[in-house]
């Protein structure tokens, strides 16, 4: 007797992977787990003291400045063209990538099943559209007190612009993903850079033309959405994308927590070229007057310039310092300008200590005097571009505010910035050397 005759009322059990446990539920669980993990990483540094003394005061100051600007905008703002604001919204769409929250274990079964691949692809499409709609809506809402009464946009036109930019950003994420799948290395960047420039200026030009026409804006947005659908259908036909999706997820997670875990990520990025792009012949950056000091300083400077992750930190500091000098009154900006080199040199000192602790460099023994002098010289030269750019910004502000002989006084900030950067580097290097000597003496006494 067969099994069906013995159990006539029994029904075949539905597979959990294809039935109750669908691709939509798994995608939602992975998305929530991802953002929960990111939040737990940020909770490492966002304790109550940081929130009380840094986050909350910064939020109050930022909200107050925003409120004052929106209540009393500059008199000539109405004559300001709308194009730069539309350009900023277009540049915002370049951020983010097409994501499916793929994991390495998906290659065992899930990624081999066409239904699961289609489900994750469509959910990634919906997630990308919703996230871009949310981010663009928040930025547009923050700018609405200026866009609506000053520039004359209606609420409906502003909402249509949000939908238009979200659709354009979604199409760009899929186009960027398509380029990343087809090309690698310099070919990828050679394709992305001109394509991104055409996208930004094209989206801005269409938005500038249709900003006050509701139907035309929605029509352009529908065209971008149709293009995104077409790119998604091409994406579904492409096989062998699992490793690319995993790399995208790893890069997304790293970009969100890199500032929190910068001191724990001691492993250097894997080199992708047989020789470095910059200084391939290893030519010296500094004149070697002192063999050991200049050679050590020169090697570290080239290491910093060649590594994008270290340069990115310096660029972030440059941007934050520029905002700190551009927003406050000029007397406060001068005081901030004198303090900013300590931040730059402290960040460079941390990179210097990590570099000296690498396994290869640990094989060499340097005297304390050589390390101190090399650190002082290298940090001073690397901090000098920041200091001179900030001095130039402050000089322009002083000259525009006071005019006349103030321009001559402002020009004097450039040499002052040069000597002040060298002084701060010497101070922090000497302080670090004295602390190291004190720690070694205390450890020797304990032993």
UniProtKB/TrEMBL annotation:
Assigned keywords, A-Z: Membrane, Transmembrane, Transmembrane helix
GO cellular component, one term: membrane
Pfam families: EcsB
Alphabetical list of InterPro entries matching this protein: EcsB_ABC (IPR010288)
Record field: transmembrane: 41-60, 80-98, 119-140, 146-168, 189-208, 214-234, 310-326, 404-421
Domain of life assignment: Bacteria
Protein name: ABC transporter protein EcsB
The organism of origin for this protein: Cohnella phaseoli
